[in-house]
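Structure ticket #2291
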Amino acid sequence: MTAGFFTIFVVVGLIFSYLGRAIAAAVPWIVVLVGAGLMLLGALMLSGRTSFHLNLGRATF
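Resolution: structure written out below.
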């Protein structure tokens, strides 16, 4: 029973380790894209434009 728990935790730990490294490698690019998007939205706001307009209409209850 102890060997089963050990095996499960080792396998799950290795999977999380692999996924963590893959995500860590992509984080700098994700940060650059988010920053560029925020700069674009800020420039749109400064120019008086909006990035999108939601027209939800009137709520009817």
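Closing remark: Residues 44 and 50 are 6 Å apart (CA to CA).
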